[in-house]
Design goal:
Helix content: 40-55%
Strand order of the largest sheet: 5-4-1-6-7
Shape: elongated
Distance between the termini: 18 Å
Number of strands: 7
Strand content: 5-15%
Largest sheet: 5 strands, parallel
Low-confidence stretches: 1-12, 143-147
Radius of gyration: 21 Å
Number of helices: 9
Order of helices and strands: HHHHEEEHEHEHEHEH
Length: 273
């Protein structure tokens, strides 16, 4: 029986990791900037003048459509999780803080907070306000660095302690390198500590829809607390500036497509509990 369960777990983990890799590849080719580059390459390879002109026009149309700032902000806002405010006295046994907000400077051998560090700020704030009794930071090393001593969870724990949060109220999961593993390993830790559900899930607003699906697939009861809002309702107002090309629009499309593809891939790997 143990062998059967081990084999089943191996198959599930293998499937999850395979879908994780496939989703990354698909998300890369869904990047509009990649489409433009591919069109230009095809145009360069074509010898026929009419076909060359067609691919050049196609690349220009894609650029015009996807370089404006209005469309990615509009769809980003529609996709991301809404802002929620906790009621006075609302408290949870643990706040699950998803990693992915720390970058590693390999040259200087040090970790630094990145753009998504509002996750860290909100987790510390929620603890200080008494909304969560403990903080569980989940995240190992998702970067391909030479210094194997680096671990995101360790870095976050040190900074939480420096803010005056007792180390006894901080739990660290140090192995996960993606959201699926975040949920898998976090579930085991919280189950072993017998912390009562539901848990407060803290992550970026854009990442929250996928994170909810992943944690619920693992059988966990969570309450989403979205933060790190890159787009607000005000940003979706259409003005003449919305039509101006923006290099940042391509990055927004890339991140948005990544989340959508990741969420859709969960349908193929959903577990039964």
């Amino acid at each position: 029986m143990h062998w059967v369960m081990t084999k089943k777990t191996f198959i599930l983990n293998y499937t999850d990791n395979l879908m994780f890799v496939i989703s990354k590849v698909v998300a890369f080719f869904l990047n509009p900037f990649v489409w433009i580059v591919l069109c230009l390459i095809v145009a360069w390879l074509k010898k026929d003048a009419r076909r060359k002109k067609f691919w050049l026009k196609t690349s220009l149309v894609i650029f015009i459509i996807f370089s404006n700032s209005y469309m990615p902000k509009y769809f980003w806002y529609k996709y991301q999780a809404p802002y929620t405010e906790l009621k006075p006295g609302e408290k949870y046994s643990a706040g699950i803080l998803l990693g992915g907000f720390v970058s590693y400077d390999e040259n200087n051998k040090r970790a630094v907070f990145s753009q998504a560090s509002d996750r860290f700020i909100q987790a510390a704030r929620l603890y200080k306000l008494g909304h969560i009794s403990r903080i569980l930071i989940t995240g190992g090393n998702a970067f391909l660095v030479n210094d194997q001593q680096y671990n995101e969870a360790d870095f976050v724990v040190r900074n939480l302690v420096e803010l005056g949060i007792p180390s006894g109220d901080i739990m660290a999961e140090k192995k996960a390198i993606n959201t699926i593993e975040n949920a898998l390993y976090t579930d085991k830790i919280l189950d072993s500590t017998r912390s009562p559900e539901p848990y407060l899930l803290i992550t970026s607003a854009l990442h929250m829809p996928r994170a909810i699906r992943v944690f619920e697939n693992e059988g966990m009861k969570i309450r989403p607390y979205a933060c790190d809002f890159h787009v607000t309702e005000t940003d979706t107002r259409f003005t003449w500036r919305s039509l101006l090309p923006s290099a940042g629009s391509f990055e927004m499309w890339n991140l948005l497509f990544k989340e959508i593809v990741g969420t859709l891939s969960l349908t193929l790997t959903q577990r039964k509990h």
